[in-house]
Amino acid sequence: MTNEEAALCLAELGNTHRLSIFRYLVKAGHDGASVGEVQRQLDIPGSTLSHHLSRMANAGLIRQVKRSRVITCLPNFELLEELTGFLREECCMGHEVGSETTGAQS
To answer: What is the reported pLDDT for 90?
Structure first.
């Protein structure tokens, strides 16, 4: 994952409605949730929800599957794992405990 890809995902999740939607879909699991269910549970107006879902789909955070007249939203768990891995991959590397770069003062 590149910095640009991570920044796009994080920017989309930086909106409170989109973060709530994504967390709800993650909670729903691999079966996802219908647009109507998301709207009812999170009390987001239809046109607003459509806008947020479109942005999240364009960033790859979710995908939408149409089954008959029902649109089901599915979280992209692979991208979520990739994003969290990207954020953790250099954790605690490059700084020695007690070095001057940690901000500790004597």
So the answer is: 85
Q: Which two tokens stand for residue 9?
A: 């995902």
Q: Apex CA 87: angle with CA 34 and CA 72, to 5°?
A: 10
Give the per-residue pLDDT at 17: 96
Whole-model pTM over 0.90: no
* Helix, strand, coil abundance in the chain, percent, nearest 5: 60, 15, 25
Question: Measuring CA to CA, how many Å separate 65 from each of 41, 76, 99?
Answer: 19, 12, 52
Determine the Cα–Cα distance for residues 56 and 45; give it in Å rounded to an integer.
16
Mean pLDDT by 10 residues, the chain (106 residues): 96 97 97 96 95 97 95 97 94 69 52
Secondary structure of residue 15 in the 3-state scheme: coil
Return d(Cα 75, Cα 98) in angstroms, integer: 41
Q: Backbone phi, then psi, for 34, in 5-degree steps? A: -75, 155
- Sign for the CA dihedral angle at 18, 21, 25, 26 comes to positive
